[in-house]
Amino acid sequence: MTADRNGIKPLLRNRRITKRRLNKQFFIRIFREYSVKLLTFVLLLGFAYIILYPFLFKILSSFMSDNDLYNVLVELIPMEWTLERYTDILRFSDYFKAMGSTFMFSVIVAVGATFSAAFVGYGLAKFKFPLAKLTMVLVVVSMMIPIASLSIPLYSTFRFFDFFGIIKAISGSPLNLTDSVWPMLLLSFTGLSFRAGIFIILLRQYYAGVPNELIEAAYVDGSGVMNTFFRIILPMARSMLVVVFALSFAWEWTDTFYYSILNSTTGTLSQLVLELNSLLVSPELRDYSSSINQNAGAILAILPLLLFYVLLQKQIIQGIERSGIVG
Amino acid sequence: MKNQLTEKRKFSVDKRNNQLWGMVFVLPFWIGTVFILIKMIVTVIRFAFSDVGISNGITTKFIGWENFRYIFRVDATFATTLFNDLKDVVITLPMILIFALFVAVILNSKVPGRTVFRAIFFLPVIVCVGMLSTIDQTNSAMTFMTDSSATTDASTVVSAIGDITEFLQNLNFSPELISFVSNMANNIMDIMNLSGVQILFYLAGIQSISPQLYEAAKVEGASSWEVFWKITLPSIVPTMVVNLIYTMIECLTRDNTELAGYIKEISINRGYYGHGAAMALVYFMCIAVILLVIFGVIVLAAKISERAKREEYRL
Fold it and tell me: Domain residues for A187?
């Protein structure tokens, strides 16, 4: 395009340049432009291949029969296609039940994270109150604590759940909240679930870009604080809310850490996939065939997530790009 | 972030009322912090300094620094695991920043199918966070397949690294640089999995640079190489800081590091809660020190650049 506009037309008008020379310049320009384009395209293709390769491998290998696995000639494309692994998984494990509970957990956590980020972010961005600075510092600190280092108290807090001994005084012993939705519900609605601090900061930055005049105008027109928040601010921040919802949903869907500590017997998809290692396989095949089974299970488990991503991909990416956290 | 906080005028229709509403909005976070987060932190500290027994509820007996002495003097694996984990983080951090910048610059040019590529590069953020990365750590089939087949997959890329390293050595590059490059190539999968969000941040940063700057540079006859170093890079330094912070959080707070697994095994599987808590505390302190150092450097750099700007203005 640019070659057309800048180069060729003026050259054509210039009669002193011979046709041969024109051709040469034209081709050099075109060649340069397209070779750079081709190079970047190939490079991107290579990176994309590196990212997609694990998925490709998992999908294709899950269709391989046991013979194919030990056949040196078979690399990616199976020789004997089989659906056995998938049918086995569906038959011997509670796949649909696990998906149901995973879905429930993910929705709860996503709603909770969106709720807490929307509220706390607004409070931090647009209000002046005594503990504002301390709250901001605490959000940053909560974001930076490696949650793995809190795995023991995470368990003990919810295994023996209590508010300053109130529950113990009433019912005699602290509540056992593990293996229920309560821990994740409490954590997400109070802005402590996986990377919730980042969501709060993300929304805080977004709200900071909303002009104060808009909110003041709403106040002048007689709208209350909550009314303004729900009717004006939240609809404006819809794209950011989609980002927070989608990310927290996806991260909860594939989470292994919180489940392994708080809900070890609930049977969610990620636990099911981790257990496939020892399920379905006779001991002598365990090492190798089992990880192929695991791959098949993982593909089954993330399939809904992939669909979800394909549908929401544009909104998520544009939301993050325009979040206002940068520049 | 801080500047925006202080500069932005906060409105005050009714001051007292406003304060109250602000507290209402942040109330959920405070509830969580007081009842859960602080309680958890206190528990870790208490456990780390005591002998913990779990039988019919938790019993603790204060034993001072005994747990810490144990994990450093007696436990053979802890110190090395900690060191390796921290070393990994410190090495991968600049790699992710550089790689994400590289990809973002490429994606910003007019390549066919860039929206598709953008979606693909962001895919790991959605999918590869918990379960898949846990599986891939122990995926014997994958390692077996990629080792045995030496033709057309990612392993070929990796096996070519030896040749490249040798080539660079023959060219007399410094060994640090060579090991950095070969490390980057070896860990390319990890790096790409961790740099999805950063690429988007960089893209947003690059797109916010005013196009007039580029046009002016073009008129002056600057090459793309010069444009990158003289315009793009200086303009996205703030984005780089945001990315640095995000990457730090992402890398340091991951829950599937080797040490995290070890802590979980020691405490929850074997029942040595005291030792596990001490390890967690040491790990946290190390991370806090790293974060503080990096933050200090960022703040210092910001101050220096501000002072330089002010002096320029004065002149």
Answer: 93-321
